[in-house]
Q: What sequence folds into this?
């Protein structure tokens, strides 16, 4: 089951993100997780998937500031032991569904992928050729409002 992170999961989520992205990302992960439980305008919402009580996948969504009807997706992570089993696809789909239940008009989901990750996102309906500041591909896709939260993978 995929569910929104709760306050008690803060430390475990931080450690999970460090396992996936490395120790260099600990402070950034800690700050973003803390923002989820703050009053920040564009606070992220972390979604987690547990298997046998351990966090095995995560993703974060947040509404972009300074633009309208645009949501960012980040912290897409699957535990190294569980890669290639479909969890990555499942957690990104959950992120799209979590956006779909929150938007009132057709909206855009954006993310910055590692170059080697573009193929993974292309399969989930994301496209784009713009590079971000680090030369990584910026990808986007449309998300239509859907109160039931169930949306097809491809827009
Ligand atoms: C990227 C990541 C989330 C993928 O998770 P995963 O659970 O291994 O992916 P899935 O098993 O759901 O893969 C879904 C499909 O995408 C394919 N796929 C995975 N990575 C791919 C890639 N780099 N290019 C093209 N296709 C890819 C898989 O082969 C699979 O195809 P299939 O359905 O035909 O078998 C995972 O490798 C990860 O956590 N990496 C480290 C963190 C990271 O890079 N995050 C993303 C930042 S861009």
A:
């Amino acid at each position: 089951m995929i569910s929104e992170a709760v306050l008690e999961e803060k430390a475990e989520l931080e450690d999970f993100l460090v396992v996936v992205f490395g120790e260099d990302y600990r402070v950034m992960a800690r700050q973003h997780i803390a923002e989820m439980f703050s009053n920040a305008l564009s606070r992220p919402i972390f979604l987690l998937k547990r298997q046998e009580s351990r966090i095995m996948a995560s993703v974060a969504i947040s509404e972009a500031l300074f633009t309208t009807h645009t949501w960012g997706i980040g912290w897409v992570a699957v535990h190294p032991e569980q890669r290639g089993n479909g969890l990555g696809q499942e957690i990104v789909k959950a992120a799209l569904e979590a956006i779909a239940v929150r938007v009132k008009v057709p909206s855009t989901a954006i993310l910055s992928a590692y170059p080697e990750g573009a193929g993974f996102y292309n399969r989930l309906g994301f496209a784009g050729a713009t590079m971000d500041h680090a030369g990584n591909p910026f990808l986007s896709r449309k998300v239509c409002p859907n109160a039931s939260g169930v949306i097809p993978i491809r827009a």
In short: The chain has a mean pLDDT of 93. The beta strands are 2-4, 45-51, 54-63, 70-78, 107-112, 127-131, 137-143. Residues 87-100 form the longest helix (14 residues). The pocket of coenzyme A is lined by residues 20, 76-78, 83-89, 113-114, 116-117, 119-120, 123 (CB under 6 Å).
